Each structure stands twice: as C-alpha cells, then as structure tokens.
Amino acid sequence: MDKLKESPWEKLKTVEIKPIEQECLDRVFQYLIDKDPTKPSNDKNKIGPGDLMKVLTFLGCKPLKSEVNLIIWEVDDDLDGYVSKDEYQTMYKRCISDTTGLEPRKLFNLVQFLMYDKTFKGRVTVEETLQILFVRYGRENLDNEITAIFGEDEKNEDGSEKEITYGEYVDKINKRALKDEESRIKARKRPDYNLNGAEER
C-alpha cells in the first residue's frame, strides 16, 4: 500500500533551516519590525506595511501602498494585515523548498537580499552572498548561484568587487524565475514526464 501523501504543513516540518540561515533570518526580522513607530502596540513585534514601505524606499524603490499590502497579504495566513514571526518562518520554508515556482516570493526576495546585506547598506557584494549560498546550495552549485545574481563577471573593470542594488537583484531573480518556468513547461511536454514532475525511470 502506497504511503499516504503528506500534507503541505507536514512537509514544511521537514524543511531544514541551517543555523547560519536562522541567524540571518532573525537579524532581518528584527530589522524589519522596528521601522514604523506608529504601529499598534499589539503588533510591534510583527512586520507591517509601514515597516516595508520605509525599507523599500531606503532600497531605492517607490512602492505604492497597494503593492506593500500585497507583499504582506501573500504570506499573511491569519489576515491581520501584518507578518508575524511564525508567518515569516513559514514563508521562508515554503520558498526554499518550492520546486514549482508557484510560491509568492515578493517578501522572500526582500528578506533574502537583506540576509546578504549584513550591515543594511542597500548593496551587496559577491563575498557577502557566499556564506548563505554555500550553506544552502553546496560547493557544487555555488558558482551557478553567484552567476545568477551577479552575472559572469564578479568584479568591475577596475578590479573592484561588483556590488548590486536591491532593484538589480530582483531583476536578476525574476529573469531567472522566468527561465526556470520555461524549462518546467518544456519538461511537462516530454513523454517521460509523470504527474509528480519527475522523469519516469
């Protein structure tokens, strides 16, 4: 008898977050929750629209209020208009374990960039991304991940280390996501593709 299919929540329990990732996640969460002093006291330990508006503006974006609300809505499981620590953790686990490309990633992309940007200066270098990328993808996939973020050249023409802004980072990530989706569409058209998204052996 086949094993009963696990529910999405049961699968999430098995998703591992490495200690260095968790350390960075905690640092970013604390950074995000203290930007809006006008939040109600009951929500001071949650990420709110005002927090995200200020952070995104600092990063060079000009978000509309509706866009910020959408970022929160995508991961706001209890629909209170804020992102709690549990919802934040769940969002991260969903995105790092997603193989379909269907998980909302607006907040994830912001959090990921800030995990790289340890001093919250608004730009990241290749060196700053290495630790997280290595922990998550391993040495064998490290170069591919760096190229996906920074392109083929890791340094500028003058030899200095290349830096990218949040806007540039999101642009690279979105282009990669589009290419990955195109690959999945092609794979689904193959005769050896089964319902689980894997090749028949």
Could you name the key traits of this structure?
mainly alpha, 2 strands, 55% helix, single chain, 201 residues, Recoverin, domain 1, 9 helices
Word description of this protein:
- This protein starts with 7 loop residues before the first helix and ends in a 13-residue tail after the last helix.
- Helices cover 55% and strands 3% of the residues.
- It is mainly α and 201 residues long.
- Helix 2 crosses helix 6 (106-116) and helix 7 (126-137) packs across helix 8 (139-150).
- Strands 1-2 form a two-stranded antiparallel sheet.
- The chain has one domain (12-189): Orthogonal Bundle (Recoverin, domain 1), CATH 1.10.238.10.
- GO terms for molecular function: calcium ion binding.
- Residues 44-95 form the EF-hand domain.
- It holds the Pfam family EF-hand_8.
Q: Element order, helices and strands?
A: HHHHHHEHHEH
Number of strands: 2
Q: Record the strand order, biggest sheet.
A: 1-2
Largest sheet features = 2 strands, antiparallel
In CATH terms, the superfamily is: EF-hand
CATH class: Mainly Alpha
Tell me the structural class: mainly alpha
Please estimate the helix content.
55-70%
Instruction: Report Rg.
Output: 18 Å
Bulk shape: globular
Number of helices: 9
Q: Please state roughly what percent of the residues sit in beta strands, choosing from under 5%, 5-15%, 15-25%, 25-35%, 35-45% or over 45%.
A: under 5%
Mean pLDDT: 87
Low-confidence stretches: 197-201
- The end-to-end span amounts to 20 Å
